[in-house]
Amino acid sequence: MKKYKSSIIVGIIFIIIWEGLARYIDAAYILPSPSSILEKIWILRKELFLVHLPATLLVTFIGLTISIVLGVALAVAMNLSENIQKAIYPIVVVTQTIPITTLAPIFVLWFGYSIWSKVLATVLMTFFPITINVYDGLRSTKREMEELLMTYGASKMDIFIKLKLPSAMPYFFSALKITVSLSMIGAAISEWLGAQSGLGYFSKRMMTQLDGAAVFAPIVILSFITIILVAIISILENKIIKWRNE
């Protein structure tokens, strides 16, 4: 807890300033106060937590799982073959130059309002950090260490498992922390542009009613869940990569 003491203090100060500024402006449809947002979450808790939150989390976790598998597979393939790296790397970079807001409506045309249009948008937004970070992690091993293992008779598979994979793990977890937040954003954006449920859809619906507190409510919920998921990933990271703390 002491580790996050400064962050907690800054967060409390920010909320106090926000509350005071919102009360001073006195225009809830523009800037609702934190207290009014929490009150709205409580009032609409059944709809938010039983209908829309599960829909968003389902899109998030399916998209995140696909991104992890796809990203790691592409990173390993590029590390194993220079020809694959030259063919795939530019394509991976190009996918990030296209705004997701322009592609999401196309995905809706292809898949309708099914979950897969939103999953595809989420994957497109999240697989890049995993691919690039894991690839950089696999390349971070020193050539001298590889040559040393080869002199002891290690095969390419031995070098990959015992040297490259452990070296890439910190990069993987760093990418995972980034991707968790991006997956939430991707799911919410895709729901905003075309969906029948989800926190993004809920926020868009409330915006048409000029209900500022209800528009902010999904943002607060997603932020809180993201913080929890990143904390869980950090705990797993410390458990798995014990050698880094030694």
Automatic annotation (TrEMBL):
Origin: domain of life: Bacteria
Compartments (UniProt record): Cell membrane
Chain ranges of the ABC transmembrane type-1 domain: 53-237
CDD domains the UniProt entry points to: TM_PBP2 (cd06261)
Record carries keyword Zinc: no
Keyword annotations: Cell membrane, Membrane, Transmembrane, Transmembrane helix, Transport
GO cellular component, one term: plasma membrane
Membrane disposition: Multi-pass membrane protein
Parts of the chain that traverse the membrane: 7-31, 51-76, 88-113, 119-138, 171-193, 213-236
Biological process according to GO: transmembrane transport
Keyword Disulfide bond part of the UniProt annotation: no
Record-linked PANTHER family: ABC TRANSPORTER PERMEASE PROTEIN HI_0355-RELATED (PTHR30151:SF20), ALKANE SULFONATE ABC TRANSPORTER-RELATED, MEMBRANE SUBUNIT (PTHR30151)
Family statement drawn from the similarity comment of this UniProt entry: Belongs to the binding-protein-dependent transport system permease family.
Protein name (Swiss-Prot/TrEMBL): ABC transporter permease
UniProt organism field: Clostridium aciditolerans
Upper lineage: Bacteria, Bacillati, Bacillota, Clostridia, Eubacteriales
